[in-house]
Amino acid sequence: MKKELLEGLSDEQIEKIKACKTSEEVLTLAKKEGIELTEEQLEAVSGGCGTSQEVQCPECGYSSRNVEHWDNRYYRCRNCNHIWLKPQYDY
Question: Does residue 89 form part of some domain?
Answer without folding.
Answer: yes
